[in-house]
Amino acid sequence: MNIVSYNINGIRSSFKKGLLDWIKEFDADVYCFQEVRADENIVKNLLFGEGQVDMFSNKDKPCNYIALLNCGGRPGYAGTAILCKHKPDNVLYDMEEFWHDEEGRTLTAIFGNIAIVNTYVPNGNSRLDFKMQYLKALTKFIKKMRERYKVVCLGDFNIAHNEIDLTNPKECKNKSVFLPVEREAFGEILKVGLVDSFRLCNPTKREYSWRSYRSINDSQHNGWKYRIDYVLVDQGLKENISSANILDLAYSDHLPAVAEIK
Description:
This protein has 6 helices and 14 strands. It is an alpha+beta fold. Helix 4 links the parallel strand 7 (114-120) and strand 8. Helix 4 packs parallel to helix 5 (180-191).
Protein backbone atom coordinates (compact mmCIF):
# COMPACT_ATOMS: atom_id res chain seq x y z
CA MET A 1 0.00 0.00 0.00
CA ASN A 2 1.45 3.31 -1.14
CA ILE A 3 -0.11 6.05 1.00
CA VAL A 4 0.28 9.83 0.77
CA SER A 5 -0.40 12.63 3.25
CA TYR A 6 -0.50 16.09 1.68
CA ASN A 7 -1.66 19.50 2.92
CA ILE A 8 -2.65 20.97 -0.44
CA ASN A 9 -3.33 24.53 0.85
CA GLY A 10 -6.56 24.83 -1.11
CA ILE A 11 -7.76 22.35 -3.72
CA ARG A 12 -8.62 25.04 -6.29
CA SER A 13 -5.14 26.56 -6.14
CA SER A 14 -3.33 23.21 -6.18
CA PHE A 15 -5.42 21.89 -9.09
CA LYS A 16 -4.62 25.00 -11.13
CA LYS A 17 -0.94 24.13 -10.61
CA GLY A 18 -1.48 20.58 -11.89
CA LEU A 19 -2.11 18.46 -8.79
CA LEU A 20 -4.70 16.24 -10.49
CA ASP A 21 -2.19 15.22 -13.17
CA TRP A 22 0.29 14.28 -10.44
CA ILE A 23 -2.36 12.25 -8.58
CA LYS A 24 -2.98 10.18 -11.71
CA GLU A 25 0.73 9.80 -12.51
CA PHE A 26 1.91 8.89 -9.00
CA ASP A 27 -0.90 6.34 -8.70
CA ALA A 28 -0.90 5.93 -4.91
CA ASP A 29 -3.37 3.54 -3.32
CA VAL A 30 -4.56 6.18 -0.84
CA TYR A 31 -4.22 9.97 -0.82
CA CYS A 32 -5.05 11.86 2.38
CA PHE A 33 -5.41 15.60 1.81
CA GLN A 34 -5.68 18.35 4.38
CA GLU A 35 -6.71 22.00 4.04
CA VAL A 36 -9.04 21.34 1.14
CA ARG A 37 -10.66 24.75 1.67
CA ALA A 38 -13.71 24.27 -0.54
CA ASP A 39 -17.22 22.95 -0.15
CA GLU A 40 -18.20 19.47 -1.26
CA ASN A 41 -19.79 20.49 -4.57
CA ILE A 42 -16.67 22.38 -5.66
CA VAL A 43 -14.44 19.42 -4.75
CA LYS A 44 -16.68 16.99 -6.65
CA ASN A 45 -16.65 19.20 -9.73
CA LEU A 46 -12.86 19.47 -9.65
CA LEU A 47 -12.44 15.71 -9.22
CA PHE A 48 -15.21 14.31 -11.38
CA GLY A 49 -16.44 17.08 -13.66
CA GLU A 50 -19.85 18.65 -13.95
CA GLY A 51 -21.65 15.29 -13.95
CA GLN A 52 -20.62 14.58 -10.35
CA VAL A 53 -21.06 10.85 -10.76
CA ASP A 54 -21.48 8.64 -7.73
CA MET A 55 -18.38 8.96 -5.56
CA PHE A 56 -18.45 5.21 -4.92
CA SER A 57 -18.26 4.38 -8.61
CA ASN A 58 -14.83 4.60 -10.22
CA LYS A 59 -15.90 4.38 -13.84
CA ASP A 60 -15.60 7.02 -16.56
CA LYS A 61 -14.53 10.03 -14.52
CA PRO A 62 -11.51 12.37 -14.64
CA CYS A 63 -10.26 11.18 -11.25
CA ASN A 64 -10.31 7.39 -11.13
CA TYR A 65 -10.57 7.23 -7.34
CA ILE A 66 -13.28 6.96 -4.74
CA ALA A 67 -13.50 10.27 -2.88
CA LEU A 68 -14.36 10.64 0.80
CA LEU A 69 -14.92 14.25 1.84
CA ASN A 70 -15.21 16.09 5.14
CA CYS A 71 -15.24 19.69 4.03
CA GLY A 72 -16.62 21.12 7.27
CA GLY A 73 -19.14 23.89 7.75
CA ARG A 74 -16.90 26.92 7.23
CA PRO A 75 -16.61 27.74 3.52
CA GLY A 76 -13.04 28.03 2.28
CA TYR A 77 -11.52 26.83 5.55
CA ALA A 78 -9.74 23.63 6.66
CA GLY A 79 -11.40 20.38 5.48
CA THR A 80 -10.02 16.91 4.74
CA ALA A 81 -10.38 14.42 1.89
CA ILE A 82 -9.34 10.84 1.16
CA LEU A 83 -8.97 9.42 -2.35
CA CYS A 84 -8.75 5.62 -2.46
CA LYS A 85 -8.82 2.93 -5.12
CA HIS A 86 -11.18 0.63 -3.21
CA LYS A 87 -14.43 1.27 -1.40
CA PRO A 88 -13.88 1.35 2.39
CA ASP A 89 -15.89 -0.84 4.73
CA ASN A 90 -16.74 2.17 6.88
CA VAL A 91 -16.13 5.92 7.04
CA LEU A 92 -16.04 8.09 10.17
CA TYR A 93 -16.42 11.85 9.80
CA ASP A 94 -15.30 12.78 13.30
CA MET A 95 -13.65 11.22 16.34
CA GLU A 96 -16.81 9.61 17.71
CA GLU A 97 -17.51 10.76 21.27
CA PHE A 98 -14.11 12.37 21.67
CA TRP A 99 -14.41 15.32 19.31
CA HIS A 100 -16.76 17.21 17.04
CA ASP A 101 -16.19 20.47 15.21
CA GLU A 102 -17.44 22.23 12.09
CA GLU A 103 -14.01 22.46 10.45
CA GLY A 104 -13.73 18.99 8.88
CA ARG A 105 -10.42 18.20 10.56
CA THR A 106 -10.71 14.42 10.85
CA LEU A 107 -11.71 11.73 8.36
CA THR A 108 -11.24 7.98 8.88
CA ALA A 109 -11.53 5.21 6.29
CA ILE A 110 -11.62 1.58 7.42
CA PHE A 111 -10.45 -1.24 5.15
CA GLY A 112 -10.70 -4.65 6.78
CA ASN A 113 -8.52 -4.52 9.89
CA ILE A 114 -6.81 -1.25 8.87
CA ALA A 115 -8.09 2.18 9.96
CA ILE A 116 -6.60 5.16 8.10
CA VAL A 117 -7.07 8.34 10.13
CA ASN A 118 -6.58 11.57 8.17
CA THR A 119 -6.03 14.51 10.52
CA TYR A 120 -5.51 18.24 10.17
CA VAL A 121 -4.34 19.42 13.59
CA PRO A 122 -5.20 23.08 14.31
CA ASN A 123 -2.54 25.74 14.16
CA GLY A 124 -1.70 26.89 17.68
CA ASN A 125 -0.64 30.47 16.99
CA SER A 126 -4.02 31.90 17.90
CA ARG A 127 -5.84 28.84 19.32
CA LEU A 128 -3.32 26.88 21.37
CA ASP A 129 -5.96 25.65 23.85
CA PHE A 130 -8.12 24.43 20.95
CA LYS A 131 -5.12 22.65 19.45
CA MET A 132 -4.25 20.92 22.72
CA GLN A 133 -7.84 19.79 23.22
CA TYR A 134 -7.87 18.37 19.71
CA LEU A 135 -4.61 16.49 20.29
CA LYS A 136 -5.95 14.96 23.51
CA ALA A 137 -9.09 13.83 21.70
CA LEU A 138 -7.03 12.41 18.83
CA THR A 139 -4.91 10.40 21.27
CA LYS A 140 -8.01 8.91 22.90
CA PHE A 141 -9.58 8.18 19.52
CA ILE A 142 -6.49 6.36 18.23
CA LYS A 143 -6.26 4.37 21.44
CA LYS A 144 -9.86 3.24 21.04
CA MET A 145 -9.45 2.46 17.34
CA ARG A 146 -6.41 0.28 18.08
CA GLU A 147 -8.64 -2.01 20.14
CA ARG A 148 -10.17 -3.19 16.84
CA TYR A 149 -7.85 -2.11 14.05
CA LYS A 150 -4.27 -1.49 13.06
CA VAL A 151 -4.13 2.28 12.72
CA VAL A 152 -2.32 4.50 10.24
CA CYS A 153 -2.71 8.11 11.38
CA LEU A 154 -1.39 10.67 8.95
CA GLY A 155 -1.72 14.34 8.23
CA ASP A 156 -0.57 17.85 9.02
CA PHE A 157 0.12 17.82 12.76
CA ASN A 158 1.48 21.39 12.92
CA ILE A 159 4.21 20.08 15.28
CA ALA A 160 7.92 19.57 14.69
CA HIS A 161 8.68 16.73 17.09
CA ASN A 162 12.44 17.07 17.61
CA GLU A 163 15.22 19.52 16.81
CA ILE A 164 16.14 17.55 13.70
CA ASP A 165 12.66 18.33 12.35
CA LEU A 166 13.11 22.10 11.88
CA THR A 167 15.77 24.56 10.83
CA ASN A 168 15.67 27.01 13.75
CA PRO A 169 14.96 25.12 16.99
CA LYS A 170 16.35 27.79 19.34
CA GLU A 171 14.32 30.56 17.72
CA CYS A 172 11.21 28.36 17.76
CA LYS A 173 11.32 27.19 21.37
CA ASN A 174 8.59 29.69 22.32
CA LYS A 175 6.72 29.44 19.01
CA SER A 176 3.70 27.27 18.34
CA VAL A 177 4.92 24.33 16.23
CA PHE A 178 7.78 23.55 18.63
CA LEU A 179 6.41 24.34 22.08
CA PRO A 180 7.27 21.73 24.74
CA VAL A 181 3.58 21.11 25.42
CA GLU A 182 2.95 20.40 21.72
CA ARG A 183 5.96 18.10 21.38
CA GLU A 184 4.89 16.23 24.51
CA ALA A 185 1.39 15.79 23.09
CA PHE A 186 2.87 14.37 19.88
CA GLY A 187 4.92 11.97 21.98
CA GLU A 188 1.75 10.83 23.74
CA ILE A 189 0.23 9.90 20.37
CA LEU A 190 3.27 7.76 19.58
CA LYS A 191 3.05 6.10 23.00
CA VAL A 192 -0.43 4.85 22.16
CA GLY A 193 1.29 2.48 19.74
CA LEU A 194 2.36 4.33 16.60
CA VAL A 195 5.72 4.85 14.92
CA ASP A 196 6.91 7.80 12.83
CA SER A 197 7.54 6.04 9.52
CA PHE A 198 9.86 8.71 8.09
CA ARG A 199 12.12 8.80 11.14
CA LEU A 200 12.12 5.01 11.33
CA CYS A 201 13.41 4.77 7.76
CA ASN A 202 15.59 7.90 7.91
CA PRO A 203 17.03 8.18 11.44
CA THR A 204 19.37 11.12 10.79
CA LYS A 205 17.97 12.68 7.62
CA ARG A 206 17.04 16.37 7.65
CA GLU A 207 14.08 16.94 5.38
CA TYR A 208 11.12 19.22 5.84
CA SER A 209 7.50 19.10 4.73
CA TRP A 210 6.71 22.81 5.09
CA ARG A 211 8.76 25.80 4.08
CA SER A 212 8.09 29.50 4.07
CA TYR A 213 7.55 30.89 0.60
CA ARG A 214 10.86 32.73 0.94
CA SER A 215 12.58 29.38 1.54
CA ILE A 216 10.98 27.44 -1.31
CA ASN A 217 13.80 28.14 -3.75
CA ASP A 218 16.49 27.80 -1.11
CA SER A 219 18.48 24.64 -1.74
CA GLN A 220 20.36 25.04 1.54
CA HIS A 221 18.87 24.39 4.97
CA ASN A 222 18.20 28.08 5.58
CA GLY A 223 15.01 29.97 6.26
CA TRP A 224 12.02 28.58 8.11
CA LYS A 225 11.38 24.92 7.36
CA TYR A 226 9.58 22.29 9.43
CA ARG A 227 8.75 18.62 9.20
CA ILE A 228 5.18 18.75 10.45
CA ASP A 229 3.47 16.27 8.11
CA TYR A 230 3.65 12.64 9.19
CA VAL A 231 2.60 9.11 8.35
CA LEU A 232 2.34 7.42 11.75
CA VAL A 233 2.01 3.66 11.47
CA ASP A 234 0.72 1.11 13.96
CA GLN A 235 3.43 -0.80 15.83
CA GLY A 236 1.75 -3.93 14.53
CA LEU A 237 2.67 -2.85 11.00
CA LYS A 238 6.16 -1.59 11.82
CA GLU A 239 7.90 -4.47 10.09
CA ASN A 240 5.77 -3.88 6.99
CA ILE A 241 7.10 -0.35 6.36
CA SER A 242 9.39 -0.62 3.35
CA SER A 243 10.02 3.09 2.71
CA ALA A 244 9.03 6.59 3.82
CA ASN A 245 9.87 9.83 2.05
CA ILE A 246 9.02 13.47 1.54
CA LEU A 247 8.47 14.42 -2.10
CA ASP A 248 9.59 17.73 -3.59
CA LEU A 249 6.52 19.13 -5.36
CA ALA A 250 5.32 22.63 -6.17
CA TYR A 251 1.55 22.40 -5.64
CA SER A 252 1.49 23.80 -2.09
CA ASP A 253 3.63 25.38 0.62
CA HIS A 254 3.66 21.85 2.12
CA LEU A 255 5.29 18.74 0.66
CA PRO A 256 3.69 15.30 0.71
CA ALA A 257 4.79 12.63 3.19
CA VAL A 258 4.69 9.19 1.55
CA ALA A 259 5.01 5.71 3.02
CA GLU A 260 5.03 2.27 1.42
CA ILE A 261 3.49 -0.36 3.69
CA LYS A 262 3.56 -3.97 2.55
